[in-house]
Amino acid sequence: MTSENPPFTADMQQRPFWWEAAPPYPATAALPDATEVAIIGGGIAGLATALELGRQGVKALVLDREAIGWGASSRNGGALSGAGSLGKVRSDLAEVFGKAFLAELAEEGEAAFERFEALVAREELDCDYIRCGRFVGAHAPKAMEGLKRRAEMINEAGGTEQAFLLPRGRVREEIATDRYQGGMVLLRAGALHPAKYVRSLARAAERQGARLAGGVELLGYRRELDGGFVLQTSAGTLRARHLMLATNGYTGPATPWQRRRLVPVASFMIATEEIGEERVRAALPRLRVYGDTKKILYYFRPSPDHRRILFGGRASFVDGDVTRAGRTLHRFMVDLIPDLAAVRVTHCWKGNVAFAFDMMPHVGIQDGVHYALACNGSGVVGMTHFGTVAAQQILGGSNRVSAFARIPFPTRPFYTGNPWFMPAIGMAYQLRDRLDGWHVKQGGKT
């Protein structure tokens, strides 16, 4: 397709496809003078914290400068797994943490997935959840070795074979492409409708007594001598016994310690027009969720009704134009699955993903402020789990401290939260993928 014939429908929307069924939750509770727990960030982590606190008899107040669920929690691809997300962008975890501690991290990740499924059932969350498995494509022959290590880690943590490798000759069992050199199938993985999940989580938190207030921004705070907090917000001042931060890729200047440890990166997605389940199955025979091992990775999946394909990736390493990124993602999709060349796009959108410098998620407490941050592109299960962990910390701890709470949260000298270096990193990632033998062909009609 040329610039005169772009890959968009006439009514293409620059907003998440997910919002068609579940727009951000319109919660506008009035601010009280005081609350036991103030949670900043109305996404998955913040709502999971509020839900767990409510189940233990503590009523929390959740604030978000946008509508509840407006951020990445309702914009992501809706793919989820447990320990399968560990090491997605790093191959040196065993060397860095040691095998024993890595095993502890992996076991917690696998247990978090099981607890997530139990949460969905217990709270009767309406989110189109299904355990469908994940396929991770190897973009280069050497990437298979990294997938082999990941599969071994997952299987050791789960106690059964939950992950296995496929050679190149069997890739088409999973996806209609010849681009991947093999891959890994992860059985303990699933898919959901992320916006429905956030909305259902918000309603569950409200049922347990949480108050949700969208359109309220944290401007600053100070800690009192008694250990409590005074919060200055765009809607007034309030006191809180405990303060919890769950802002991830939208962390602002009011919390500079956390902001210095997060790198916000724009991730982009497109949704195709309806092409019918038969064509979707022809492209993605197992109807799983999908990703790959490139530095500039792709992630994609069928829509919950199996009539569309949703495709995402790092189409730009600056907070760029959504339409331009949509064209790039369409080209990536067609390069990967040529049979989709004539398929048009109905929705393009973006959302901020929060990365840590060590590429690991973090939960803990700093100077009295609790936090659950750095989803690193795999936040549905992780942030649900870490929100629950943060709630347990606020309540006084649990029988077992999270392994992730024992990981130092690093920053870099002179970094203040502005990722000015991302264009250079994007160029380096492109070069790395090219050196590995991956290059994007011109997809579609020219």
TrEMBL record:
**Which Pfam families does the entry link to?**
DAO
Annotated ranges, domain FAD dependent oxidoreductase: 37-392
InterPro entries, per database record: FAD-dep_OxRdtase (IPR006076), FAD/NAD-bd_sf (IPR036188)
Superkingdom, taxonomy of origin:
Bacteria
Q: Which key words tag this protein in UniProt?
A: Oxidoreductase
The record's listing under Gene3D superfamilies reads: D-Amino Acid Oxidase, subunit A, domain 2, FAD/NAD(P)-binding domain
Q: Does the keyword Oxidoreductase apply?
A: yes
Protein name listed in UniProt = FAD-binding oxidoreductase
